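Many introductory courses stop at the sequence. We go one step further.
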Amino acid sequence: MAPDGQLSLNLGALENQQRYNLAFQILPWMEGSFRYSHISDLGRKGQYYDRSFGLKVRLFQETRYTPDVSVGIRDIIGTGIYGSEYLVATKQLWDVDLSAGMGWGRLASTETFPNPLGLVFKSFNVRGSRGSQTGGTVNFGQLFHGPDVGIFGGAVWHTPIDNVDLIAEYSSDRYVTEARQGAFSPKNQFNFGISYKPFDFMRVTGSYLYGTTWGLTISLMADPTLPNYANLFGTAPMPFVQRTSDARRNAVAELVNDSNDVDTIATGPWVQLEDKNSSLRGRLSAELLETKSGYRDFEIDGRTLIVNVQGARTGMCAKYAHAAASESAGIDSVAVSDLNDPRGQIAICAVRAPAPHRQAGVVLASLNADDLSVADPAQAGPDAPADASPAPDTGPQMPVDTGAAERKIREDASAQGIRVEAVSITAHEAIIYFNNGTYYFEAEAIGRLTRVLSADAPANVEIFRFISTDVGMPEIETRIVRAPFERMMLLYGHTQELSSAITIAPAPKHNPVLDAQEENLFPNFSWSIAPDFRQSLFDPKKPIELQVAALATGTVQIAPGLSLGAVLDGNIWNDFDLTRRDNSLLPHVRSDFEQYLKHGEYGIAALDADYFTRLRPDLYAEVKAGYLESMFAGVGGQVLWRPVGERFAIGADVYQVWQRNFDRLFGFQNYNVLTGHVSVYYESPWYGLNFAVHAGRYLAKDYGATFEVTRRFSTGVEIGAFATFTNVPFSKFGEGSFDKGIIIRIPLEWTFPFATQSSYSLDLRPLTRDGGQRLLGDDSLYDETRRPSYGEISRHLDDIAYPQ
């Protein structure tokens, strides 16, 4: 198996044949592949192109004494010309990798012996036909079936010369079909090669094959689990500025004094504190026992009482605070937690009677005694970040010009490429509404803004509130408690500590700060001109068709949530076959795409009005009208329920659309359809796997469901597959039987060393047909709300602490 997550492209050639293989290490124990093969001079077929999928699963991992054992299938859905199955064992001995296995189908054409499965089940002795003439289906009567199996094996010697390997193998594939039709005929079954890896991402292999021909293979590898660049070009993040211990203590004390009760329960690892004052233990223990609230034990750290309670709840804190106050022990605050609860929930409250003028709703999450008495920066441990610069000790805090601080925050945020739409500084909070149009991850923008506030916000500000917006519409709030964040940066430097300092929640429904400052936000115009690259890959007649186009985009934001957008494009160069007409039996909703390129070389790709809003804190809605894409215009909308903190989301969309003329201007063809789907999304905790199901009516008026599974890495790279099954019979659908393909999403920020939200998206279909086709962007709300979502921000806490 390749390293987990590795994506590789293999280009190979031998006599009369070329092969292009895209492989993806789906999981540590599972590999998927897509192969596109070209055979010249294949009898009456002449030029033959074949598309096939493969799958390999590891059954046992190699140990010191036992081999790695895997089972695999080639051409699992297709015409079956490369259909084969195999069981293979691999073992490393010193500098040599040895492999041996047995194969069915094509791999059972030499050195055969009876199929062992046929000895148990007689039906396995008969290998079924290739199945549907249209391909695209799995013929279970072929898998591991046949009267015989073949034996194959090989060895790879990792030579003392760096990155040079020598290869020898015995193949059990005799190329029976190719030899019968005069395309290729082996003289023997032995192959020899030499492989060289000039770069980490490339391997070149030369070979002598079957005693008759030379071959060449070039392999390109990429690791989507890791970023390609440690730092990006452009503006560097500001240094993180620490307050002095006195300033930190004063800010926390004022926050506690101005809060009349617990606001939230903080989650995060419990930090065991030392009991520095045991003289009160007897009296306090007796007093706490009187509460009868599951009390177990307590500790005192400085002026904070820490109580271990069975089944800790928020309401318990006030009882223990009252008990502590009755002893006049000089205790200012109480922290309550259940040390046997692995979630490590902590409730904190002040030890004093509440005053009527004191404000509620201040987050005390994750504050503890360390925040009241943290060491000076000079005493920081070796893990303290180099850029955590202490602010100068200016003595007692003087009144702060909040207007100047707000202007400085806007200026520094703009220098970081982040647009601040509103900012307000109060006694304890700094509130920023911002639009991130630069960084692929929202956490990166929040991390940079955190450093801006560490330098520009007054020392008395203890709560940082960052509210992400889109078209002036608040989406989600990330709230950071300053003291524990400083403590993490100063003493620990490990981002697991951030879970107790950060709260992610839906943005507030009422936003007076934004409302008061939004008059200068609209109208807002943005535009761009950029090249665009389009491709049609693995067509039955032509393997690669490319187009280079110029793309001009313009957007006017008129009011919160309301925008007008236009996309114009023009052809620069292409090599598409514009003479071919499709023979689809369904309405030509996609198969005539080349006619749009032929007659609409320059045209309107999109021209629409869009209104985006939140109906509830976690319920989004969007309405669109106009020329929605190159092939369809219409009106419709979508809704998405995306509860914060949950792994699932549910959406629905419906559009009435009319097919556009091939010239992509303002006319329409005589075809319209009402299309829509209900969608369910799930972000699983396993390997970053995401699942989605879309069920409804498609553009060709067929009904069915699309199933998607992708794996999303921390770099933002996402790779997966989809399949759509509708009520269209396979025979009417045409070649391929049903719509299916590979999904690839690659952020350009991962490919190039500069910050950008652009990405390369490719739905790689073996061929384009009309069944199971959806309107482009019909469920775009899910992707539009993904960047500032709870899951994306919480998975990238590292980017908040240490932005690039």
